[in-house]
Fold this sequence. Notes:
Layout: H1 3-21, H2 27-39, H3 43-62, E1 72-80, H4 89-103, E2 111-112, E3 117-118, E4 129-135, E5 141-148, H5 150-153, E6 157-161, H6 166-180, E7 189-196, H7 199-208, H8 221-235, E8 250-257, E9 265-272, E10 278-283, E11 289-291
Parallel strand pairs: 1-4, 7-8
Antiparallel strand pairs: 1-5, 2-3, 5-10, 6-9, 7-9, 10-11
Helix pairs in contact: 1-4, 2-3
Bound molecules: iron/sulfur cluster.
Residues 67, 69, 149, 151-152, 185-186, 273, 275 line the site of iron/sulfur cluster (SF4).
Amino acid sequence: MDKEKLVEKMTDTMAKLIDYSGKILPDDVYQKLEELGSKEESSLAKTIYQTMFENQKLAKELSRPCCQDTGVLQFFVKCGTNFPLIGEIESLLKEAVIRATKQAPLRHNSVETFDEYNTGKNVGKGTPTVFWEIIPNSDKCEIDSYMAGGGCTLPGKAMVLMPGAGYEGVTRFVLDVMTSYGLNACPPLLVGVGVATSVETAALLSKKALMRPLGEHSSNERAAYMEKLLEDGINSIGLGPQGMSGKYSVMGVHIENTARHPSAIGVAVNVGCWSHRKAHIIFDSELNYTITSHKEAKI
Length: 299
Ligand code: SF4
């Protein structure tokens, strides 16, 4: 296939995936909501979960986004150096977002900063956001796509702590964010925590943490233990579904980390809402693809 046809094929696939993932939640999120819904005891919490599932059913039947805020599209791209479209990915993702905006349709969420106008296409200067990882000697391309809504973006926060703050300082920072801004996203929440050497590395990891499948824990035993402690701590706040109180505030807490400078602890929090619209797709060099986030996906 010539390059033009390959570009068209990948653009079309990504546009359809974006459209689909704005309507159908990924399998892990849906299952987690079912699990949490079945464990809530108050009739209000149970009713809210029923409403969420009714919303999912109608989104599918009517082919409409499951939340009105379809977000700014963000992509985490892990691309092999031998993938044939490595040079075309950014521009084709932009085109895919424009197409999905019409097809789905998606709400127009890209406002040019300072010029203050909405482009009407969900693309603009630097949007959609594309984060890159280059994989040597691979001919595959893996993409996590995420709809970053206004509500779930608001609780994001990052800072660098003094080294003496230690892991207690990290815990305090996360809990402060969750008790002050947490409700700007619709619970139950997925909480991403980045612990790294500076403010920008921690911030990026905290968003990356939201792409990890629910139920998977950090491969570092101590970080995994901290995920559990933070999850219990945030649950005890009692946000419940939609912040209307309940036993469970979160779908999970994911920590991602790097090594750090000994005199600094960069920490960041990023929050996904119950309508956590992420998708994960892997392309081979001929653009055959596997969607791992939605087993039933037909696009
Ligand atoms: S926080 Fe999530 S569910 Fe709530 S309005 Fe925003 S995108 Fe929708």
